[in-house]
Specification:
This protein is an alpha+beta fold. The chain contains one helix and eleven strands, in the order H-E-E-E-E-E-E-E-E-E-E-E. The N and C termini lie far apart (82 Å).
Length: 144
């Protein structure tokens, strides 16, 4: 007489199902961050432009903003002239800072220095800051 209504093959099947579910969960938790890192970023389209009020960028000062999902900076180096750059250092991707007293950008991670026109002045950055087109439309600065 068998008192156990569950056969060994049913127990084995149940155990395999539980282990397969746990394995799937662990795999999903492991791969999700990699997918988020590698997947294209959602954001405005490639042709979208950003409008910045002219009054928000003082002479010799920098205005940081988001452009197409990444940090960017708008600068007025001389009266009425504006330049925009990616605020991401081309060395290792740190966010640059504007040093108004020196008139240059500084990457705080490895002391990379850039001129007001984005050229490399010193440090490890291999190339200049990425330039972004700028156009004036009335009281607005159109970036992109």
């Amino acid at each position: 007489m068998d008192n156990n209504p569950i056969s060994p093959s049913q127990r084995r099947g149940f155990l395999i199902t539980i282990l397969a579910g746990l394995g799937t969960a662990v795999t999903a938790v492991t791969l999700w961050p990699m997918w988020r890192f590698l997947a294209p970023r959602k954001g405005p389209g490639a042709l979208e432009r950003v409008a910045v009020a002219r009054a928000s960028v003082d002479l010799g000062a920098a205005h940081f903003f988001n452009f197409r999902g990444a940090p960017a900076v708008l600068l007025q180096p001389s009266p009425g002239n504006f330049a925009a750059f990616s605020a991401v250092c081309p060395h290792l991707g740190c966010i640059i800072k504007w040093q108004q007293d020196k008139g240059e950008f500084l990457c705080p991670c490895h002391a990379g220095r850039f001129s007001a026109d984005g050229k490399v002045l010193g440090g490890p950055p291999p190339k200049p800051l990425e330039s972004i087109p700028v156009a004036l439309e009335g009281d607005q600065i159109m970036v992109g």
